[in-house]
Amino acid sequence: MTTLPNLEDMPNVVLSNIFEKTGISGILKFRKVSRSFREFLEVSPMNSGIIQMNFSVFRDLISLKFYEKDSENLEISGIQYSKSGENNCEIRYGNSGKALKDSEYSNRFFEDLKIILTYQKSIINILQFVCPVPFFISNYQEFVRKFQKTLENFKLKVKIFHMQHSNFEDIFGILKNLDSREIEEISIFSMTAEQSNNKEIDNWVNLDQWKMAKRLKIRNVSMDQSIIDFLHFEEVHIELRTISANDMILVAQKFLTSPIPKDYCIEYLDFPDESKFSDFLGPQNVVNEENSAKIVFQSTEDENYLRFCRCFLANVEENS
């Protein structure tokens, strides 16, 4: 009688090739098949090759989506962890799902996240973290702490870090655990009402991640911060609570004399001595209307573009 080949009896090199081709979603499933697979995967040095990871946190639901190096469809590699009943959890892989009794959904998420990050050896182009309304999630702070703690053991290599949330202390705890040698862009956007952060960002400016990044985009969050802390970036899009003519002249001179800054958009709420800056730029570079909005600095190979825009943001974009 012929014995059918058993996958568990395959040589390690063959198993490694199989598991790498299945991707991280396949690895998560194979770990649940048998103890031998689980033990093999725990010591295997394979790379999952994820190039983009998106985390979304909602009430009683965590969604993880990722592009893998050979995948063109983000939705195919999506996993959702949700609360089901009082003490149960439902995990969905695409169109298939599984219910787990006496299992807390966020604990299962973090168990799988540790596995995913263990196999992530290459650079992630985009790491995106979305929590639109954190005050609706009763255990959100606990979730953030667990997420920060998980990242401490990995130092992920990430090019673009994007977080749709406005608590700078929370963001700081995640950002500091990314590999500073690879970070290129930090992007923050508050989806709730405009937020103000006056103290927490002081911790950011001392981070290597802040110093090494090339682009900074912080939207819908007003800051009381010196413009000096932003001048090493190539691209900046921020909103400051108050700006001064001397600071803006410093930025303008930086654009005229240094190859580093390329594209700055500085929105503001208060500009007490704006006439001094207008005089510095000259009337040809000032858009005069009733509502102050932003100052735009752009540098290209051919010319430097400096404009003081005193109008609605939408109007500025139409005129630019």
TrEMBL record:
Transmembrane segments: none annotated. Residues 142-266 form the DUF38 domain. InterPro entries: DUF38/FTH_CAE_spp (IPR002900), F-box_dom (IPR001810), FB224 (IPR040161). Pfam families: F-box (PF00646), FTH (PF01827). GO terms for biological process: innate immune response. It comes from the Eukaryota. Residues 7-40 form the F-box domain. This is F-box domain-containing protein. It comes from Caenorhabditis nigoni.
